[in-house]
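Problem 3 from the worked examples.
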Amino acid sequence: MTRHPQILRASLVTAALSTASLSGLAQADEVRFATPPWPGATVKTEVASQLLERLGYETSVKEASTAIILEGLVSGDIDVDMALWRPSQGGMLDPRLESGELAEVVHNIQGARFKLAVPGHVWEAGVRSMADLAEHAERFDHTFYGIEPGNVGNEIMQDAIENDAYDLGDWQVVASSVTGMLSQLEANNNGDRWTAFLGWEPHWMNVVYDVHYLEDPEGLWGDASTVSTVASAEFVERSPNVVAFLEQMVVPIEVQNAWVHAFSREERPLEAVAGDWLDANPELVSKWLKGVRGADGSTPSPESP
């Protein structure tokens, strides 16, 4: 069985999506994933991809921003995205659901969090809410640390600044990357310097660091987060067997935390993290595959999906 991981950097995806090689409809036994450059989403997508390849499907995975991925789903160049966060990215998704272009298959992680956070020593000093930030602006250097430019979390923080929410009008957002933001957290993870940063769970940051999520009385970050698997409407119609699998692939938060820790913190190879986990967890894999058949219509054996 030939693997086609094809992990592309976001700078290449925009051009790639416009080429003839990606245009048109995929074959019934082909699944084209895309993922934003987040460790949790990357490993989760790789796990799904490897499991489908064990069932006889051909898969590919492209890396891009959520905005590019949604356009690719609508245009038919991408089939599945497993990393759409609600409510923070709902505004990007809902119009496409209402138009019938896309389908929300399942909330693959429930009880997730995606909002502004501070390390433990800042929390213990009394910063428990976004309403507490302005009073300590100097300690934070009037700065929020976000991730990649264009991320919805960055935009929520920037909107707070522009609207002077919580008296934050003189603050700034530093957009970087997941690695850059966590490096800043690591550098400031002591009692002398304070950091306000975009945090989320599941992620290994919640295991390695003492992360606390700030209360948000004005509701800028919306309700409790979930993470959705989203597919093009055409793919849902074309590949009901794969959709049946995706509907059942709901990942416990502690499992994805462990994936991200192994891949991003321990720096184990992506394919090894996913493949070793699949081999070691037949019980959960069997639940995901209940009633699902191989690409050739066969029933997978319990021992070797």
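Problem 4, a separate protein:
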Amino acid sequence: MYRPILKLPKTKSEKIWDYIGGSAFIVSILYIILLWGKIPSEIPGHFNGLGEVDRWGSKIELFILPFIGLFLWIVLGLLEKVPHMHNYPARLNENNVKAFYLNSRKILNEVKNLCLILFAFISIQMVRIGLGEANSIGWWFLPVIIIGTAIPIIKGIIATAKIK
């Protein structure tokens, strides 16, 4: 199967997504570190579909999402660098390879950064709830997650279908 290795520079939108996702993620980690001494020993450990706390856990659990986020940031960042290893339809050829690679990489980039933003928000809300500054992450959070992650995927599938 035709799979050349191309060096395609990141697009402006990919750079913007990386900046927003990475910044939000780093800010959430700094927020946890700066408030560590004020955070109570028990913080929200899980939320139900309405965004309400349904399990409390140790404040050490605040590091779970940052570790998962860091893992995603590294692995998905590495996968962005090798679009020739992604899955493509049989119609991939020398005339459309650049379009397929860019589209696949953009989908991956958006999903990666949306996950980082979501993890940052959840981490900050866990601290805020623990400190008594908030009661839940909000009923709207689950629909936002579903829609927010579906949009880049659907957009990417439509773009893929349009590549000749």
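Solution to problem 4. The mean pLDDT is 95. Helices lie at 12-35, 64-80, 97-130, 141-162.
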